[in-house]
Amino acid sequence: MSLAHALLTSLLEQASSGYDLARRFDKSIGHFWQATHQQIYRELGRMEKAGWIRSTPDPDAGRTRKRRYSVLPGGRDELMRWAAESAPLPELRDEFMVRLRADAVIGPLGLLPELGRRRALHADKLRAYRAIEARDFPPDPQASRQRRIHHLILKAGIQYEEGWIAWYDEALGVLEHA
Amino acid sequence: MSLAHALLTSLLEQASSGYDLARRFDKSIGHFWQATHQQIYRELGRMEKAGWIRSTPDPDAGRTRKRRYSVLPGGRDELMRWAAESAPLPELRDEFMVRLRADAVIGPLGLLPELGRRRALHADKLRAYRAIEARDFPPDPQASRQRRIHHLILKAGIQYEEGWIAWYDEALGVLEHA
DNA sequence: TCCGACTATGCAACCAGTTGCAGTACTGTA
DNA sequence: TACAGTACTGCAACTGGTTGCATAGTCGGA
């Protein structure tokens, strides 16, 4: 159950509401862990019951129902406990490879446009990551441990997109001349 | 619903039983699409109902219940239709990144051993892929379209593992000296 | 001849994640 | 003041995937 732990991490970085969490998930942690607002609300409810977090009406709430969640000591302990666990590698699961294999067994199915589209999507992501890198991580030998780790995580995304772009370029060559 | 299409592809390559499909999934297609025998049996049932495949008692069955599934024209059409669809990129979802981020916000949580373990797992996979490559894809300018595509798919796995190994090496450096 | 390992299939329950929909309050604009 | 848009929370139903368990036959070895 990592969503809870992703939320704990995010809340430790900054106490906030379910809605804000959902939006922040679209950036930062969301590059490696996605969640809809539905999941987030449900999970926040469970976590509060478990005594990991508590919620108070948000000071910025005005008359809305907005609530601010913050991490309790129990939640922090739980996060530390969980972080030390070992876990299996994420599994590679890409339906495009299935399509390719279908194309191989049946014969040309016109996958080239889709291939180009996917390459472009990866290029978009890479560009976005590079922009974040340029903005938030200027070269700095004195950077704090926290910053260095955040940069490292971003580099995982960069490395991932670059790898796929290179592969899609090769794939383009194979499908064009075959 | 890609599992059905992965199964169709696999059955087109070779008609076989649910059990054999499950085992073949552990290799080839399974590098990019995993499924348990449970899922497979359930899905084969649906596909037969849909008229995409048919099953006959397996000739090698002896007195067991073993059945051989093969693709009907309707299944082939469905696969062709589906292959031309476009689909979103698979999402990167790696809980280790959440752990790293927790380590960044709380302070050193002793992630180094886990980091080494994960690097080793990637190295194992890479070695396995390289072995398959050496065995099944000797350099051959005359290789068929099908072989070239299969090789391409394998290279996606190789590229993926190599990227992560490089990243884990860098991560090792960051966590050691911080 | 009994036993354990393996092949082969399947039911039932559960869980995480997704989708569709809805309600409520605020904010700006015509 | 009416209306559109959007911030914010939530319910209910569904889907795909996982887990635990059950069953039944085959085969080799103690």
Describe the structure.
Two copies of one chain form a homodimer. The first copy, chain A, has 178 residues and is mainly alpha-helical. Chain A folds into two domains: 82 residues, Winged helix-like DNA-binding domain superfamily/Winged helix DNA-binding domain (Arc Repressor Mutant, subunit A, Orthogonal Bundle); 82 residues. Helix content of chain A is 63%, strand content 6%. In chain A, strands 1-2 form a two-stranded antiparallel sheet. In chain A, helix 2 crosses helix 3 and helix 6 packs antiparallel against helix 7. Chain A is elongated, with a radius of gyration of 21 Å. Chain B binds a DNA duplex (30 and 30 nucleotides) through helix 2 and helix 3.
